[in-house]
Amino acid sequence: MSLIPDDVIEQVREAADIVGIIGEHVELKRTGADFRAPCPFHGGTHRNFAVIPRKGMYYCFVCHAGGDVFTFFMKKLGMDYPTAVREVARRAGITIPERGPTGPDPREPLYSAVAAAADWFARQLRESPEAQVARDYLTTRHLDLETVQPLGLGYAPRSKAFLDAMKGLGVRDEVLLEAGLLARREDGTLAPRFRGRLLFPIHDVRARVVGFGGRILGEEEPKYLNSSDTPIFHKGKLLYNLHVAKHAMRKAERAILVEGYFDVLRLSLAGIEEVVAPLGTGLTSEQAQLVKRHAPHVILLYDSDEPGLRATFRAGDELLREGLRVSVATLPPGEDPDTLGQKKGAAGLEEVLKDAVDVLERKIQILDRKGFFGTLPGRRRALDRLLPTIRAAKDPITRELYISRAAEAAGVRKDVLERETGNATRETAKLSTSPVSGVAFPALPSSAEKALLLLMLEGEPWKSRVVEAVDREELEFPPYRAVFESVADDAVLALDDTSARAYEQLKAEGLGHRDPNEMYERAVNWLEARRLERQLEQLDDQLPFESPERQASLIAEKRRVFDELRKRYPRYKIAKRRRGAPGT
Ligand SMILES: [Zn+2]
């Protein structure tokens, strides 16, 4: 529908220097990771206007103007959206194909209506006396107004004030109906869809508000209500916070999937940006595909109670079906990501994420804890629970590893399990007879660890080069580490079942047409960057407890490690480094 393809808009946004562009209109001063200036919109003299490069957005704490680099041009210079994109593209040196003969996007009035509503709802949350209940509610969740304002949270009053306000702005009822913001009652009268709710604006991937998720402030049902599906809002095809998280997802090469809006808020306030949530329903395949466009690995961070676990494994299967790597992080009993974040902060959250285990492994842990593997019928039932996850795994290597692991855990022969999963000899045979052509492998292996093993298995000189460059402890995936050790020591026959399968699969995959030099370079750099990042983290942990003299020398050490890291990743944004975020 739109004139400029989404991926081009994405490319432009990624390339845009928001600080440079806004800096042409106001004098920005750095404060920490952000920049501040007097607001160019309401024309104040104090530095209430913030540019937040890591989120690609700006926000004024006085007049509440906010948005991304495109909306800045739209609001400041009165451009329409395509013109703003073209202007930013021009500055970033990106060529956009010329405008075709098509007219304007017919959905434009819906976007405008939802944007006008979002502004109005946000103002109610700040100012309306009735919204005190919402402000109090935020306080009970340890969120202050100042913190949530840039995120666009709003309040929908119980009255019909919304109708009058939109009328005053010239937004027609029909448009509001189509945008899912009004409902027609049986008697034909119109009523606002959201009443007495705290609203979370939901953005599309272009960062335009397209709908809302509303939490009731009172005892009514449902607790959460979304905009109804409209031409611009499809709840199964959107993820909350994706418009912000996608940049971090690319850099961190992972996505963290949580259940609720507040979980997203808490993680992102703790500085963990690569977090998204489905909109109050189970994860759909479309949403899994959306995640896959930005990261190869997903960590599920759901509640650890029974319903939470069920949702975890359902989402896990959906993600495996898209070929993603899936891990599960386990929260302490009774905690959700929000409460844990409040109590333990970023460190506590990172701790839990660090201990995430593969989704099948997590299933096995739980079944084991419940005693399933102790009896023959129990083992049968355990296998029945593992099979959907094994079947869901689309990536052939993952699937092989899963079959081996499940066979091992349940004490059954692997070929029996292979038959049950329908894997039989079809796919394995294809792998061993035509290693590369039969299966669509990505151009580069999904991880540096795998790349190094593929190189080692090519024989010399690669084996020696890898063994020399890489410490075996650097390999984190246990079967891969076992393969590394056994190949390095020429002791392949000593591999256990799972590792032996990993070995066979790697052998079968081979290098194909990939350039070994490039693979080697990238993989070694990646591991080295990961090691340097850990070193930085240790230095950060140490710093606060040292004497001033010692601190000075630690800071010098930090700078040295930073420089080293920069060399590994010349384009790496130092401002945005965190555990597991080596970027590419
Ligand atoms: Zn302002």
Essential attributes:
alpha+beta, 50% helix, 10% strand
**Mean pLDDT score:** 85
Strand order of the largest sheet: 1-2-3-4-5
Q: What's the total helix number?
A: 25
Low-confidence stretches: 425-446, 570-584
Biggest beta-sheet profile: 5 strands, antiparallel
Structural class: alpha+beta
Helical percentage: 40-55%
Mass-distribution shape:
globular
Radius of gyration: 26 Å
> Can you list the ligands bound to this structure?
zinc ion
Distance between the termini: 32 Å
The proportion of residues in beta strands is 5-15%
Please count the beta strands (DSSP E, at least 2 residues each): 16
Describe this structure in words.
It is a single chain. The longest helix has 27 residues, at 516-542. Helix 3 (69-77) packs across helix 4 (81-92) and helix 12 (285-292) packs across helix 13 (306-321). 50% of the residues lie in helices and 10% in strands. The protein starts with 5 loop residues before the first helix and ends in a 16-residue tail after the last helix. It is globular and about 80 Å long. A hairpin with a 5-residue loop joins strand 4 (57-60) and strand 5 (66-68). The protein is of the alpha+beta class and 584 residues long. The protein has a five-stranded antiparallel sheet. It has a five-stranded mixed sheet with strand order 13-12-14-15-16. It contains 25 helices and 16 strands. Mean pLDDT is 85; it is low at 425-446 and 570-584. Bound molecules: zinc ion (ZN). Zinc ion (ZN) binds next to loops.
